[in-house]
Amino acid sequence: MADDYEFTADEIEMAFDLADGRCECCDKRLSWGNSRANPGPGQWEAHHGNRSSPVILCTGEPENCHLNCGHGGDYQNPGVTPRGHR
């Protein structure tokens, strides 16, 4: 899969539903309306993680699993599929 591939809205919605609206790393409850583009409580990101389907990760503090699980604490690191630490 190309590095610049963007998931479709349908792929993201399906992944969010499969994750039951929770972060796939820490299990935090997320809000569908508060994605990366719309900040607020329960903010989240559809992360690539070297997968062909999105990984749903929270972006809010203190967990910020998109940064800490999906990039190992440094956005300069390529995205990886996180291991859940629920």
Q: What is the number of beta strands? A: 2
- Main β-sheet, spatial strand arrangement: 1-2
Which value, in Å, is the CA radius of gyration? 12 Å
Strand content: 5-15%
Largest sheet entry: 2 strands, antiparallel
Topology order in helix (H) and strand (E) letters:
HEEH
Structural class, from secondary structure content? Answer: alpha+beta
Number of helices: 2
| Uncertain regions spanning at least 5 consecutive residues | none
Oligomer: single chain
Helix content: 10-25%
The 3D shape can be described as globular
How confident is the prediction overall: mean pLDDT? 85
Q: How far is the N terminus from the C terminus?
A: 28 Å
Structure, explained:
- By secondary structure, the protein is an alpha+beta fold.
- A two-stranded antiparallel ribbon has the order 1-2.
- β1 and β2 form a beta hairpin.
- The mean pLDDT is 85.
Key terms:
2 helices, two-stranded antiparallel sheet, alpha+beta, 86 residues
Describe the structure concisely for a colleague.
With 86 residues, the protein is α+β, with helices and mostly antiparallel strands. The chain has helices spanning 9-18, 65-68, and strands at 44-47, 55-58.
